[in-house]
């Protein structure tokens, strides 16, 4: 019996939900047909509502205008700062180009000095060779003055 009572209550709940849904549909239909209470459909009230909406739009436009002015001023400041930055970068680029030209000049100067050094080394080597040859000749001539000198052996110093 208890199970029967529970099933009956469930059926009653389902019927009441269907009844409530039908009642809500009727209320929605009635609300759509009738104007909402509290709003008057006369021209004067509509005028004041329209004026209120226009004032709200005007306020929004003023706010937007002020915002745009501030953005414009900020954009001009940013543009001026960018121009200053570009000017500084152009100056830096000019300095770097000048420095690069000077570096090239130093490299050319270094190449000239290097070639002079190589030439001097070659001349020093030739001078050394010539001096060695003359020293050998001198030593040979000095050795010839010695009584024990033999021509096929040469000088004792090389």
Task: Characterize the structure shown.
The chain is mainly α and about 160 residues long. Helices cover about 85% and strands about 0% of the residues. The chain has helices at about 1-35, 45-145. The mean pLDDT is about 80.
Largest sheet, in brief, is:
none
Average pLDDT value? 82
How much helicity do the residues have? Answer: over 70%
Classify the secondary structure makeup into a structural class: mainly alpha
What is the strand and helix layout of this fold?
Layout: H1 2-33, H2 43-144
Structure in a nutshell:
By secondary structure, the protein is an all-alpha fold. It contains two helices and no strands.
What brief labels describe this structure?
158 residues; mainly alpha; 2 helices
């Amino acid at each position: 019996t208890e199970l029967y009572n529970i099933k009956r209550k469930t059926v009653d709940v389902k019927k009441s939900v269907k009844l409530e849904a039908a009642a809500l549909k009727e209320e929605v239909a009635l609300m759509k047909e009738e104007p909402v209470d509290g709003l008057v459909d006369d021209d004067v009230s509509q005028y004041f509502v329209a004026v209120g909406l226009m004032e709200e739009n005007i306020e929004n436009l003023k706010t937007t205008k002020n915002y745009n002015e501030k953005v414009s001023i900020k954009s001009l400041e940013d543009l001026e700062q960018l121009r200053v930055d570009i000017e500084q970068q152009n100056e830096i680029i000019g300095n770097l180009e000048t420095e690069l030209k000077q570096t090239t000049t130093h490299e050319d100067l270094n190449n000239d000095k290097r070639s002079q050094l190589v030439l001097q080394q070659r001349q020093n080597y030739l001078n050394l060779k010539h001096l060695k040859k003359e020293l050998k000749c001198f030593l040979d001539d000095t050795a010839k003055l010695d009584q024990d000198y033999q021509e096929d052996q040469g000088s004792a110093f090389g």
